[in-house]
Write a structure and sequence with these properties.
Structural class of chain B: mainly alpha
Largest sheet of chain A: none
Radius of gyration of chain A: 19 Å
Order of helices and strands of chain A: HHHHH
Largest sheet of chain B: 2 strands, antiparallel
Distance between the termini of chain B: 25 Å
Distance between the termini of chain A: 47 Å
Helix content of chain A: over 70%
Number of helices of chain A: 5
Order of helices and strands of chain B: HHHHHHEEHHHHH
Oligomer: heterodimer
Number of helices of chain B: 11
Helix content of chain B: over 70%
Number of strands of chain B: 2
């Protein structure tokens, strides 16, 4: 019974829709942070920008709390960068768990490892 | 916004519009390239989120991304440290030469499809999608996977190094080398360029070259143009899509040659 349910779930699994929603959500979150940052900056200082630029950072350091609306801008840029990263993660999980395809899970895993290293660990 | 429209209709990044515009306003070329990598991610996210159902091939994307990301990391690392005038000239020549190849192929009509090579067969590089403009399901097979991977590495290097051309080459590799239908090439390219742009952007982020003052208007303006472009893609024929791709490729090639001859600030 469980195998029939799983087989049906696998047959109905819509990877394309999942990826579309993930990418859409990423854009909405990113744009949302930026718009809120501009509104906050406008009410606080009567202007939009300039924003603080952090030199020589990885993504985690770039998204750390800083004073003012620049923090929201950094979160918006960070959300943009994390969207394709999460898409690759979803792809890896899809190939490993749904498609049960080791080759493509490894391909996605390699990409994920490289991106994780340069974005977070470096 | 123009960068987004051009990018989504042709499956390429919008750096072709963005970099000349930014450098025209005396923005440092390396900062412009960094922002172009961000725009590539933005276009990828925006176009793919309105993607036509079952057009992108996730297996092709997963396979080619390995090479694209590696190339982009290397290209961006080199760009942060070096000058690029000779590469602008070289890439311009390569892109214009590719236009000639595509144009010749279009004139000769669709050739007989070559059989799939054993390596591509083992990777199961195949798929099908429903083409709204033709009203039928189209099945296809990807070919020449090893060569495609090698060329995708080169595309990644160029993308990371110059901020433009990588996505154009991605579509070229998928269309000419792998033999994928143009719409599948464009849709799959939209996925790949996002990861390629991320790899390049991460290097530029670490170098402090991503200026939020430039990033904010790009992230806000590009999706609107990309959304308009990707909505139009569904109801266009493969021939129309290829024509758009050719026109942008010619503009890109001439622009890069002009950069190389005119000097880079």
């Amino acid at each position: 019974m469980r195998s029939v349910s799983r087989a049906r779930w696998l047959a109905d699994f819509d990877m394309e829709s999942l990826v579309e929603r993930l990418l859409s959500l990423g854009m909405v979150v990113s744009i949302g942070f930026l718009v809120v940052a501009m509104v906050v900056q406008w009410f606080a200082k009567g202007q939009i920008g300039p924003w603080e630029n952090l030199q020589g950072t990885n993504l985690l350091q770039f998204m750390r709390p800083v004073p003012g609306a620049s923090f929201l801008v950094h979160l918006g840029i960070g959300a943009l960068l994390l969207t394709p990263y999460l898409r690759v993660l979803v792809s890896m999980l899809y190939f490993a768990w749904v498609d049960r395809n080791v080759k493509y899970a490894l391909f996605s895993g390699l990409v994920l490892f490289a991106l994780t290293y340069i974005l977070i660990l470096d | 916004m123009g960068a987004g429209f051009v990018g989504s209709m042709s499956g390429m990044g919008g750096g072709v519009v963005l970099i000349p515009a930014l450098t025209f306003f005396d923005i440092d070329i390396k900062q412009a390239v960094a922002i172009a990598n961000l725009s590539v991610i933005t276009i990828s996210n925006s176009s793919a989120s309105a993607a036509r159902r079952h057009m992108p091939n996730f297996k092709v994307s997963a396979f080619l991304e390995v090479f694209a990301v590696l190339g982009a990391l290397i290209g961006a690392s080199v760009a942060v440290a070096s000058r690029r005038r000779p590469l602008f000239l070289l890439c311009g020549v390569i892109l214009l030469g590719s236009c000639w190849v595509i144009w010749r192929r279009q004139r000769e009509g669709q050739k007989a499809v070559a059989p799939q090579d054993p390596f591509s067969q083992r990777l199961l590089l195949e798929g099908r999608y429903y083409d709204f403009s033709e009203g039928r399901t189209i099945a296809y097979q990807g070919k020449h996977a090893p060569l495609s991977g090698f060329l995708m590495f080169g595309a990644g290097v160029i993308s990371g190094l110059l901020g433009i051309g990588g996505s154009a080459l991605t579509v070229l590799v998928e269309d000419l080398v792998m033999g994928l239908p143009p719409k599948v090439s464009v849709s799959t390219s939209n996925l790949i360029i996002g990861v390629m742009g991320l790899a390049g952007a991460s290097v530029y982020l670490e170098a402090g070259l991503i200026d939020p003052d430039l990033a904010v208007p790009v992230i806000l303006g590009v999706p609107l143009g990309a959304l308009i472009g990707s909505k139009l893609l569904v109801h266009r024929t493969n021939r129309f899509v290829r024509a758009i791709f050719l026109a942008v490729l010619i503009a890109l090639g001439l622009e890069m040659i002009a950069h190389g001859l005119g000097g880079i600030r």
